[in-house]
Amino acid sequence: MIPALANADFDHLINVSAGYEDNLPRGLDDFHRRSSNFLNLDYSFGRSYLPGLNDIISVSAGLNAARYIDYSGLDNVGFSASALWQHKFGFGPYVPRLNFTLDFNYAEFNKEARDNGLLTSGIFFSKRLNDTWRFQEALSIRRATPRI
Fold first, then answer.
1. 3-state secondary structure of 114
2. Could you tell me where the beta strands, DSSP code E, fall in 69-115?
3. Half-sphere exposure (CA, 13 Å, Cβ side) for 16?
4. pTM, two decimal places
């Protein structure tokens, strides 16, 4: 028998940012370094479900756009989707947690050859040691998919 899932809030997040990124092409010397100011807009939404007292399932999706002021070809739009299952081994802030994650991100650039997708899966174990420190052990696998 499948237990009923308790719904948590439906979250919406809008983030607008501006900044400066140095060494965009990741060049090794000054001749190959290029830098630019950028504007970034992100919108994400998601929902969490509580299938039990110690478990959380979260699903989310998002849209984003980036505009680089000083160089063309780096502007992009994209979307993302993610899922998380977290299990806490007890109650309180100091109990260990085990997370399983699955994320997909896709970015479409002005130049078709730069379009790409990234699928990431991971397992994370964490334990809060005190108010300041947390121990975390992680294993993550990424698979890039150019031009889907």
1. helix
2. 76-88, 97-109
3. 0
4. 0.73
